[in-house]
Amino acid sequence: MSLKDKVIFISGGSRGIGLEIGKRAAQDGAKVVLAAKTAEPHPKLAGTIYSAAEEIIAGDALPMVCDIRDEDNVRDAVNKAVEHFGGIDICINNASAIQLTNVTDTEMKRYDLMHQINGRGTYMVSKYCLPHLLKASNPHILNLAPPLDMSPKWFSCWLHHG
Prior knowledge:
The chain is of the alpha/beta class. It contains four helices and five strands. It has one domain (7-154): NAD(P)-binding Rossmann-like Domain (Rossmann fold, 3-Layer(aba) Sandwich).
């Protein structure tokens, strides 16, 4: 299977794993939609959807400002991606939030953010991509979620020793 001319919608595509997936897919000829909320540079994190699109020099990239917590925003980003590229073949749900603290130290605001992005946002991006995916010849949805592996370092704050 080739990714040539496949349209890939990636949430959280402005940096990190989402950007790396987009860059690699573009090398294989994919058309990449980088849907992320980072339009302005972050003081601590490098990358915006625009700088990410510039990094995808091997292919066609469409930067889309999209906060996956906002239904109108998601619907509009998916519709604009379809208008631009003609469809969606692959949906990669990469946007996520994580708070590596124990229960008593995790503020409800952070808990809510994780569930708004990781659960609801992933569901919503899939929901709005689905009608277009169903028209594709070999549609796929890939969901990524932290942690990336079961290494104890990701769970150390919840482990009780002794």
